[in-house]
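Budget justification, computational time. The allocation requested in the original proposal was used primarily to generate structure tokens for proteins on the priority list. As evidence of use, we reproduce two of the resulting records. The first is shown immediately below.
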Amino acid sequence: MAKRKTFDDSAAEPDSEEVSSLDESSSEDDYDEIRQEFEFFDPQTPWDFEGFKRLLRQLLDADATSFHLGAIADLILAQPLLGSTIKTEGNESDPHAFLTILNLQEHEDKAVIKDLTDYISNRAGTNPVLSPLQGLLSGDSGAKVGLILTERWVNIATELIPPMYRMLLEEISWAIEDKEPYCFSHYLIMSKTYLAVPSLLNEETNRPRKKMKPKATKGIDEGKSMYYFHPEDEVLERHATIFGGFDYIKQLAEGDSDSKSTFHDFGIKQRGHLILIEAANFEAAVKHMEVEFATSATAAMDQS
């Protein structure tokens, strides 16, 4: 079912993630902008299963093969009143983005949740900053943790993400009113970042390397510049109790980082990233996102 909320990206100021097209026959200053309307929908079984699997594979990156992605997609689809998708070609098209939350305690008996919990605990143990997560995720902690999963295609502007978080807050509130098990003590966002690493192509060609100016802040566990795939993560971290990165279990072969690079002189090393926010601070984090990425997207949400 559509959430009856739309966003026309032509109304917002263009950024690097918006879709545009240059007319080759025009001068450099003349171009045709593609106007694309985005719609928000509830997760829906008939059309979203394969799209969710693709986006989950993208989110979990090198370690995606460690999980039964179809089982995770089934869990998301089993709670259609929680979370959102973004589509551009109507209800029956593939999702370009999704955001959902899974109750780690409510579903602890399910194999895929056990796999996710064990994986997060294992990776948290590799980073002292994240190590408190191991105790929090143990069965004895009494914590009620909601695991937030979200991913999107590269053509989805960051301005579209705060409305998805706002809708999630509303849906959790309604679920609690209906006595559903979504009263969380903590929200754990699973995301990813990347580091710029020296390219082996430079060594092969022995040409001087250019210096790249960092575009993002440093994670508290990083000694080098860290870059965000999801720019909203930087805002969420300001409200977090814990945040930090970890290496994937399955490491790329030497030189594979060059195949992921959009830079001439650097390869990209992708890493997992976790952000833990206490429930009392989560709404403030969402409001901060709405202000940080305010455009006509939030205005359209309010008017719908």
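The second record produced under the same allocation is shown here.
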Amino acid sequence: MHDPVPPSPISLVRLTTPLARRLSLRTLPLHTHEVLPTFAFYNFLNLYLSPTVSSRLFPRTYPHLPERTQKNWDAHVVSLVQSTFINAAALWVIRKDKERWAMGPGERVWGYTGAMGMVQAFSTGYFLWDLTAASSRIDVHGPGALAHAAAALAVSMFGFRPFCNYYGINFVLYELSTPFLNIHWFMDKLGMTGSTAQLINGIALLITFGGSRLVWGTFQNYRMYRDIWKAFNTTGGLPVPPWLAAVHMLASATLTGLNVVWFQKMVQTLLARFQKGEKKKDKKDR
């Protein structure tokens, strides 16, 4: 399936080809015109659009937040916009790309279509922004977010070799839980902590997070490792360099480990929050 976005200008392809060859990212010049504008847009959204719009939509909340919390708010706005968009794009490509459906084990490791490359490019643009944001303000985002951004960017960039581009689209669906996560955070800041709406959103968050990142993600990791092993041992096929398999598996393991830790924290936070609410309600009833 072809990339539905118009092709990159020839001048940009020629400009990025030498670097792409040096890094063995053969398909990157075909998608640089998607990576760079995505990175630029999320920077604009974070630095200018979110502060302006948030101040007007929530004049009693956003302007009075501490500077650190405002930065966190803006990052959550970017995350909400990105996750909503990339989920729609990935699901559309998964449904429409017939070439992708016909891929065997070797093609799932080395295969490429323009549409898959498009989703990979939009993801790369976001994770490039995410890495710069997390590294510049570790006090706001924390070391876990930095590790997540670095691992996700590495997996996205490998897709331009192309390597496991097929699975890159599947891993994008980790983001199915992210809108609920951001909404939950905004509810806290808007005085809706412990409300029925937040409880419903919290349940949706746990279901989508556990389903997309732990169940779906673990299954896709298993399938990917199995296909890599087959490609690694296929006589006459394209061999998988050991370093590439090791780095990719390390990045995937890092993401999985972070997801497990974050899921545990979510469960603990939600239980503590709503158990306190129930205790207060019981005292009032008495």
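A brief technical remark on that second record: The first helix runs from residue 10 to 22.
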